[in-house]
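Late entry, written up from scratch paper. The run itself happened at the end of the previous shift, but nothing got recorded in the book at the time, so transcribing now.
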Amino acid sequence: MTILGIETSCDETSAAVLRDGTLLSNIVSSQMVHQKYGGVVPELASRAHQLLIVPVVTEALQVAGVSKGDPDAVAVTYGPGLMGALLVGLNFAKALAYGLNIPLIGVNHMQAHIYSNFIDDPRPQYPFLCLIVSGGHTQLVLVRELLQHKLLGETLDDAAGEAYDKVAKMLGLGFPGGPIIDKLAREGNPEYIRFPRSLLGNENFDFSFSGIKTSVLYWLRDNGFRSNDSTQRLPDQQLKDICASFQAAVVDVLVEKTFDAAARFGIKEIAVAGGVSANSELRYRMRQRTDEGRYHVYFPKLEYCTDNAAMIALVGWMKLRTGFVSDLALTPVANLSL
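Output as recorded:
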């Protein structure tokens, strides 16, 4: 069974080919045009997808060594994401499924992030807890068994990755902000400034990162620095210390909330997914907790942390094996829930 996966939910155009659960190709084309704007511009993203979708799918098929008529089904993200971006991938997939007379399988982008941990070994055992952290989402999900998910908590405002991007913009570091802050933080003092750990200690498993972001803004203002002012620059070490302090606050919340949930529900298996799962401090802190011997923590390979079609193809294969097929009238849902 050969599945073609397509992902266009935000600013990566991606296609992958998976056969019987084994990945044959995974092509990702990232859009650099957004860097000068400090964030993803939806209109530019959808236009870029239109230009890239055919060559990216063609390359994925060529790398996998299959012809255009070989796929047994096409899996595609239909939400959540940017409406214009979703439309490009979904309409392409629907036309392909119709033309080849093969099943169309709509995939929830957040479910796909969960199962990015199943592309390669080692894989979590059911039941497991999944922390999804990306630029658009921060969620804690309980996975009882295959494709059965319960949302335990999510961000009430900014997602963790979004906070990284906004703080990086304040500090004049460019976009995307996560990798830049992570790199600078390695040489900084995480105790330089005590930024707030919002909602830590609450009984629920919701998150909030807008307060941390605003605290950075206020610190800059109170110390004579104007965010986004290119004529001002923090001393190098102070910049690294601020990055380390900010990152420590975000990671503290993510780690403590996750392990609190694991303890409450008696879960020993923990998976982390999404773009922020590539963060070196988060990986270190999560694995540090496994030294207690009570938990096993799983991370996807770095190439599967950010948006990619490999995870879409895998979930499509999983759903098709259960007999699930989408209607060709499937429409994109920008705010699709888990």
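Residues 139 and 154 are 4 Å apart (CA to CA).
(Scratch paper discarded after transcription.)
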